[in-house]
Amino acid sequence: MTEAQRTYFLRTFGCQMNEHDSERMAGMLEAEGYVAATGPEDASVVLFNTCCIRENADQRLYGNLGHMKALKDKRPELRIVVGGCLAQKDKQAIQERAPYVDVVLGTHNLASLPRLLRASETEPAFEILEQTEVFPSALPARRFSPWHAWVSISIGCNNACTFCIVPAVRGPEISRRSGEIADEVVRLAADGVVEITLLGQNVNSYGRDLDGTPMFSKLLRVLDEIEGVERIRFTSPHPKDFRADTVAAMAECRSVCEHIHLPLQSGSDTCLKRMKRAYTRRKYLDKVTMIRKAIPDVAITTDIIVGFPGETEEEFQDTLSLVEEARYDAAYTFQYSPRPMTAAADLPDKISKEVVQERFERLISLQEEISLERNVRMVGGTQEVIVEGVSKKNPGRLSGRTRTNKVVHFDSDGAPEGSFRTVRITGGHPHHLKGEVVGTSREPAPRRTLKLPLISSPASR
Ligand code: 5AD
Ligand code: SF4
């Protein structure tokens, strides 16, 4: 008698690092013979890869777990797995709040997933470690896109931004050896990947723990040599570590895209100090000027927190005026959310919900005006886009992305996902562009084997 097909359903919360880790979780399960299910109802294993950056991420997980209880009552053989940042943060609390969860694993022991799943056949298996066992990139991956890949260059963070829980749940920064990274990118290119996004909490300090000196710009130059990879993106740099050598590498490397996500958090010096961001408003703006000088038509995006403890109206005005001056293409705006294990959670002078909401709306409306202005400026020009698929709202249209990371909608010419089109921009809106196809500018470059010197290193460090 053959065993019934084992299936998994995986839901990812949070950032790109979690997307990357989810691809590894799926890869390990597929290596064990599992196949993807269409939903939790027909899965033998349901996994939640969790986030804890803001409080609403916590609430979403516990809401989702609540729905799982009915399924588990109906099918006791169903395995429920909680992994990732919230698991690392909450440890035993998950078991208390959702005792029907079978496996809990943290951010440092992704590799234990198959073992813990097997162990959970007899009793619940909970394991949270304080140090990374195996670099997640060394694990098998099931890529969710045929043409795009996440490539982790470092894990963890050595900074101490007072609002941020990441260092507590992801640990100190560990860089991956450049040879290993290049090796992975070569394999991805051979597999048809045309765009990669390099991931790290602070990509600009990449390599400091390997060679005592940051090596991010060198890494960009090495990866730029790899044929087949047409676009290199990265996220996120920390403004304090963003230096001229990286800007030069961006300007000179053909495949590095003209987009920088440069998290601001606040435009006020006093607030930045309470956040321990280690730069001033002036220094931040100087970097913006340096970037704009070196890379014409670069798109700059940012993250901003509103309502940090003690934020005065004057400090908030400084954020607004910086936003006016920097002229971001887009900003991800967040309402401050106190997090356990962070210094800011203990700061006095919490800002009332109403004040935060009102400031938040003012900031969004200013940024929308600027985003619209930046996008309207592009009308009449042409852009190379990679087709991402059929538009969600209109099946007769395609959606693609420019090198500057802007979404463009255009009438479908049947172009497959991952192909290149040249598009004339016909309309600019705050969150997207409209266009029409004027050419099939670039077919993915021919593949070749890499001749770069690779620094050999063990699979994990
Ligand atoms: N509250 C609100 N926003 C936060 N972020 C990080 N921590 C918090 C918090 N406690 C935001 C920052 C960061 C982005 C990923 O999430 O803007 O850049
Ligand atoms: Fe968090 Fe600051 Fe590290 Fe970014 S640099 S992950 S905001 S502590």
Q: What would you note in describing this structure?
A:
The protein is an alpha/beta fold. Helix content is 33%, strand content 21%. A six-stranded parallel β-sheet has the order 2-1-3-4-5-6, sandwiched between helices. The protein has a five-stranded mixed barrel with strand order 15-16-17-19-18. Strands 7-10-11 form a three-stranded parallel β-sheet, sandwiched between helices. The C terminus is likely disordered.
The CATH top-level class label of the largest domain: Alpha Beta
What is the name of the CATH architecture of the largest domain?
Alpha-Beta Horseshoe
How many helix segments? 14
| Fraction in beta strands | 15-25%
> What is the number of beta strands?
19
Structural class: alpha/beta
CATH topology of the largest domain: pyruvate-formate lyase- activating enzyme
Question: Can you identify the CATH superfamily of the largest domain?
Answer: tm_1862 like domain
In short:
By secondary structure, this protein is α/β, with parallel strands linked by helices. Helix content is 33%, strand content 21%. The strands form five sheets. The chain has a six-stranded parallel sheet with strand order 2-1-3-4-5-6, with helices on both faces.
